[in-house]
Amino acid sequence: MNAVELIETKRDGRALSAEAIRWLLGAYTRGTVPDYQMAAMLMAVFFNGLDGEELAVWTEAMLHSGEVLDLSAIPGAKVDKHSTGGVGDKVSIPLAPMVGAAGVKVPMMSGRGLGHTGGTLDKLESIPGFTTGFDAATFADLLEKVGVVLAGQSERLVPADRKLYALRDATGTVPSIPLISSSIMSKKLAEDLDGLVLDVKVGSGAFMKTVESARALASTMVGIGAAHGVPVVGLLTPMDQPLGRTVGNALEIVESIDVLRGEGPEDLTEVTYRLGMEMLVLGGISETRADARRRLEAVVSDGSALEKFGEIIAAQGGDTRVLEEPSRLPQAAHHLELPAQATGFVQSCDAYKIGVAAMRLGAGRRTKEDVIDPAVGVIIHAKVGDQVAEGQPLATIAWNDEGRLDDASPLLADAWQIGESRPEAAIQVIEEVRA
Description:
435 residues, alpha/beta, Transferase, Pyrimidine Nucleoside Phosphorylase, Chain A, domain 3, Pyrimidine Nucleoside Phosphorylase, Chain A, domain 2, Aldehyde Oxidoreductase, domain 3, 3 domains, 4-stranded mixed β-sheet, 4-stranded antiparallel β-sheet, globular
């Protein structure tokens, strides 16, 4: 095989053979195909795509580039959830203990934030002592004992994706449906799942800007799951404004705890329940989504969901006292209110601008080498449809570094638009995609 010839094949819009794809991804994982050649291939795929047969082989080759978990000895259905990424998207953190408390095993592998989107692992690691890196044996042991694991991708699990993920970000090839779908599904199929629920974000703060592109991505992943015998359900949810009322790692942990107490913001709570309902049905706990909703509401109201989160924190080395004493989480040294410049109704609360501003404050990464400041972020007081008076705070900025504040402030000043009429209320689930 010759990498240049394969690049030329895809550059010219022709299909790669199964043998070629397996060789290419194997050689890249081993390091015999360099980054600059794989970068050229990624750009060729970005422009010319992968057909159904190519995508199936590409995903399979990534899946088997390293170890695959075997969780078959652990009793009970194993169901995971994946989000395509957004701003203020802390859903996984309250969702996993809710679903675990309701009786489904949740082997959840999450990622880190990069750019304007946050990462579940960064949020969890703002809890003092919380650990997210485990080998396969420890991962399985935690899942059996606790019923939920919130972890990162191990070095040996789908190593092809680890390399490709970083390269895609550095080469501007992230928003490609075949590359996104194969990345997500190779990791999820390696978890030995009985079901998977996808939260495909749509809007200014998401990688998928339109419903059509989000639908295409969800349908592609549902199809990959079906081809591998794993039931997959996709929900399209809005990301034109941040989800919930906080953007920033420790801030989002506090809000996640609020959801588990039944005190979370309406939009975040609703999306969490809707995804959890699908997980309970796939896991065989509930025959109907109505019954699943009742079960989830019950584990919140009786405190068992919050208790499960405490079990997860303890098992993964974290300080469980944060559940009752959120001041034990990292705290920003300074806070600054952002006042409304007019009286009226909030027309837009731009997720992308707020996400980039949070990154500039230190809550996210410009590059994968950047160090996160877990304390900083944005607390949102007014969202689309809310009525505000001139001078009323739209948000509170939690900051530590004045230079970073100066870098973020112009974006935040431009993130809210206020008008005279109240806009229509946003729906929390735009569409469902099923096999």
